[in-house]
Amino acid sequence: MRGIFDVIDSPLARRIADFSLKNRLPGISMFSRFTEAGGLMSYGPNQSEYYKRLAVYIDKILKGAKPADLPIEQATKFDFIVNLKTAKTIGLALPQSLVARADQVIQ
């Protein structure tokens, strides 16, 4: 079974972004790779931090910890990415105040 991270890392992200552009739809996702593939914007957990925390959990489990005993963690660092090239392509003018809040702006 494929997980959501597998799907968004695949060429499917590009296909979804292409569909959004073709139909002038503002595609928004929680995955930065979607925005990098041509989606309008993304806001979600910082994926490198996510994978670092995941590695810590895996290490604890491999050392004998029971998964049910490990605390549930919530993301604390989020990334907001805006693709201005896509906004221009679909004819969408984004407010400067929104663009200024972005952690990354794709020109």
Short overview:
By secondary structure, the protein is of the alpha/beta class. It has a domain at 4-46 and 77-106: 3-Layer(aba) Sandwich (Rossmann fold), CATH 3.40.50.2300. It has helices spanning 4-9, 11-22, 32-36, 47-62, 84-89, 96-100, and strands spanning 28-29, 41-45, 78-83, 104-106.
What does the secondary structure layout of this molecule look like, with pairings?
Layout lengths: L3 H6 L1 H12 L5 E2 L2 H5 L4 E5 L1 H16 L15 E6 H6 L6 H5 L3 E3 L1
Parallel strand pairs: 1-2, 3-4
Antiparallel strand pairs: 2-3
Descriptive keywords:
alpha/beta; Rossmann fold; 6 helices; 47% helix
Please provide a written account of the structure.
It is a single chain. This protein is α/β, with parallel strands linked by helices and 107 residues long. It has a domain at 4-46 and 77-106: Rossmann fold (3-Layer(aba) Sandwich), CATH 3.40.50.2300. The chain is 47% helix and 15% strand. The protein contains 6 helices and 4 strands, in the order H-H-E-H-E-H-E-H-H-E. The protein has helices spanning 4-9, 11-22, 32-36, 47-62, 84-89, 96-100, and strands at residues 28-29, 41-45, 78-83, 104-106. The protein has a 4-stranded mixed sheet. The longest helix has 16 residues, at 47-62. Residues 1-7 have low confidence and may be disordered.
